[in-house]
């Protein structure tokens, strides 16, 4: 039988981490792929450039993605739609996080037709808040830079303050803070 306090410790720990990060944000250093690390839940994670052999595992991650975690309508909800969407977003540099042989995170740099690239980062809900997104961003930005990407932009909902702080730690600046989504960008 569980007590009301069973979930209290993880919530308090998470709050403490967020408060410390607000007052002492650590800059994210670009890291060449591949890299391996132990995440905040003691899982071995490898972050590396996407390979076409990762496609089915990537589809599986997005197919199991919590719909409430979607950002601006992505990822799509049905497997066929996910496959079609991935066919379009895998044109630029991509990096995946792999744990236990399965893709658990993905960062993509989608060419926007103007010589710039839109950034999107997704981490499966079972692997969030363990440092994987930070590593994906560090390795992804360096991989994109090495692939010739010069300018990266993204949109993040205005209420997602933690995500905005993560991108600021990676050198992004807010370009347009108006409306429901803020646009952030940086040069590589």
Structural summary, described in words:
The chain has 188 residues and is α+β, with helices and mostly antiparallel strands. The protein contains five helices and eight strands; from the N terminus they run αββααβββαβαββ. An eight-stranded mixed β-sheet has the order 1-2-3-4-5-6-8-7, with helices on both faces. Strand 1 (35-38) and strand 2 (44-49) form a beta hairpin. The longest helix is centred in the first third of the chain and has 16 residues, at 8-23.
Question: Main traits of this protein?
Answer:
MshD_Acetyltransferase, GNAT_dom, 8 strands, 188 residues, eight-stranded mixed beta sheet, GNAT family N-acetyltransferase, single chain, Acyl_CoA_acyltransferase, globular
Percent of residues in helices comes to: 25-40%
Shape: globular
Rg over C-alpha atoms, rounded to the nearest angstrom:
17 Å
- Low-pLDDT stretches are none
Q: For this entry, what is the oligomeric state of its chains?
A: single chain
Mean pLDDT: 89
Query: What is the spatial order of strands in the main beta sheet?
Result: 1-2-3-4-5-6-8-7
- Largest sheet, strands/sense/barrel: 8 strands, mixed
Q: Gap between N and C termini, in Å?
A: 52 Å
Query: Would you report the number of β strands?
Result: 8
GO molecular function: acyltransferase activity, transferring groups other than amino-acyl groups
Protein name: GNAT family N-acetyltransferase
InterPro entries: Acyl_CoA_acyltransferase (IPR016181), GNAT_dom (IPR000182), MshD_Acetyltransferase (IPR050276)
Domain N-acetyltransferase: 45-188
